[in-house]
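Let us work through a complete example step by step.
Step 1: write down the sequence.
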Amino acid sequence: MAADDNWHAARSDPQQRIGRFRVQRVLGRGAMARVLLALDERINRLVAIKVLEPHLASNPEIAHRFLNEAARPSSNMPVLVGDNYPTSSMYVVY
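Step 2: predict the structure and record it as tokens.
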């Protein structure tokens, strides 16, 4: 399955996975990213995953802005940043 196919599957396939996270549904979409509700099966907890649109992940300026947003100390929530979903996109888990 191509990277874009995996990305689109995350919108409709409740069994889609991002690493150890099982996607439940799409919560929302903005100009640069989607937010997905997913289950962290390791700790049996629901999380929100913000995934940068794949076509934007290859732009260094946009990728930098995305990572800066994740690094901002906006809350005490743990954050996990990944950069291999599906193969070249970036995501942040809240």
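Step 3: interpret the result. Residues 3-93 form a domain with the Phosphorylase Kinase; domain 1 fold (CATH 3.30.200.20).
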